[in-house]
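The freezer alarm interrupted the setup, so I double-checked each line after restarting. Inputs confirmed:
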Amino acid sequence: MVAHIESVAPVAPVEVRDRRAEEIFSLSPGQIAGLSGIPGSGLTRAGLSLIAPYASEGHLAYLDVRGWASPLMAWELGIDPERFIVIRTDDIVIWSRVVGTLLDGMRGVYAEIPRGIKDSALRTLAARARTRRTPLVFRPIAGKLPQGVVHLHLEARDVEWEGTGQGHGALIRRRTLLDASGKATRGMERTIEIEDDGTNHMRVVPNLGSQTSRRFA
Amino acid sequence: MGRRAAEALCPTVVTIERDQSRDMARFEPVVERIESVVPRVEIADPGRAFIPIRGAVAYYGGEQALIERIDKELDAFGDDHRLGLAAGPFAAWQAVQRTSPESRVFVVTDDDAFISQLDVSAIGSEELAATFRWLGITTLGALGELPYDAVISRFGRQGMDAHRIAHGMGRSTSPRDIPPDPGVESSFDPPIQDFEQASFIARNLAQRLIGGLAPHGMAPHRVIVTAIAADGTERVRAWRSADPFDDHTLTDRVRWQLRAWIEGVSAGIRGGISFLRLEPDDLSGSGRQLSLAEDAKEIIEMQRVLMEVQAIAGPDSVLVASPQGGRDPAQQVLWSRWGDEPVSHARDLDAPWPGSIPSPAPALVPPEPVPFVVSWVDGLPEQVRLASRWVPVLSWAGPWRSVGRWWDGESSADRYQIVTSAGAYLCEVREGKTYLLGVYD
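Predicted 3D structure, all chains:
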């Protein structure tokens, strides 16, 4: 019995680290995540996977400012087509009202933020999300989110694709390096790596939080 | 008149509880008599049946001749039957209500004109009808003239159904992926001769049928009950309902039908039932039973919120999508406005679609392909222009060739997945120009 405990002891710290990384890459009801990075860095999928687990309980809303959101990706994340509602508007006058209304009745909200939205409006919406216990993901189209609004801030650092070569193969798997900060990381900036093969929920790659990227954008 | 009022007036009155299975047993011979003229009669309730006459009209030489024939057959059961003839079930039922003991047949020649002059209470909801009247809308014609978007925005799904009725379209059906054989059946040895036993079987089969359809988000509006007697006689009867059947309502219908067959005057089943099959038809997703994970209150709140968003941003802004077949990501998505009738699948989801782009799907797909600047060297992608900078291509896959509808003048295209240090992109080269089809964000 004693020998058995000794044999598993070295593994324990790794498990703790994994659990911590998975805790970071999740949203509880009423928590807000913010995403920063250019299109192509994997943030749409990462952000949606944060609220995807709530699709089993109700409907999710995607506020599509660019008009480019594709539900195919949501379906691949396991979200029922009937439970994925896309709202397309780039009107900054009504944007806050729309997000506020969605927070009242949807189980999770992913909102792209158009240019020109005031910080005070974002803070008000964040407070409403906390009150209504609706998980919310903010994705600014340009610029940065104000300080203190989000529980988890994810900034894309690097993305690496597997499967393609010089004309052969096809995209198979993506590894995305994200810099995580905010209350979720207890004030410390952490790097988490996420693996995504497009067929299920994204998963946090074990024990890669301290690794550096092999390539930078 | 209520029971107490009746007993006050006549102390010796006997109250008999309504027994629909007994009513059905009495109605069954009526249906059989109609079926001797027109097959596949659909029963809505004991005493109310819909008769699809499209094929029979030609056989009997016209609507008038057919109606006279049915009327003559029903004379055997007395003279209190009524007949309404229209193009759809809703108008036909409304036509029946225009009949009188003196004039037992009412024929609607123009469904649209007939429906438009009906009172707004015909939509079936007194509360909604009262609201419409308060707004000055007293007929279905006036309701039908209201803008569809405005009715949806103000009254939601209930308003949508009312508007559809006002246009003579009846209720909606949702096209969905239907399981290959959704019917349920059971064989019995020895055959069932006892009504109580048949009731138990009816409940079991109804629960299996509804339970099997529920994961697909469907419920039937029409169910075909087929029974085979021990002597090989096959009996078939269709039941229909404006609201989708749940397991309780379907159990009742099957029970009534089995009782009618087992104990009915015409003794339709000799030697008991050896085989029973329930086959759903006319499936829709409206009014289906909620699953355990669904909360009715939450769904109502969600609907209220989305209606409010429609009012703020416009009905075209709130969208749902359903999967369909296609080669490009944009083709594989069928968009429809939330709350609207789902559009039929234009492309077969199960077709092979050779040349389609494999999974994973791009997260961002422009509504139309947008020009994309790629530097090609000897036919191979070398650099991609993103905003103001050139980014080297690290790897790529393709081309997946799409021949296009050449008979419509559509040119062929080569699709590529291009990977750069900034991300991966799906693009196509058509007539020498490169377009962006999606971003793997």
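Quick read of the result. Strands of chain A lie at 32-36, 60-64, 84-88, 108-113, 136-140, 152-164, 166-167, 169-181, 190-196, 203-204.
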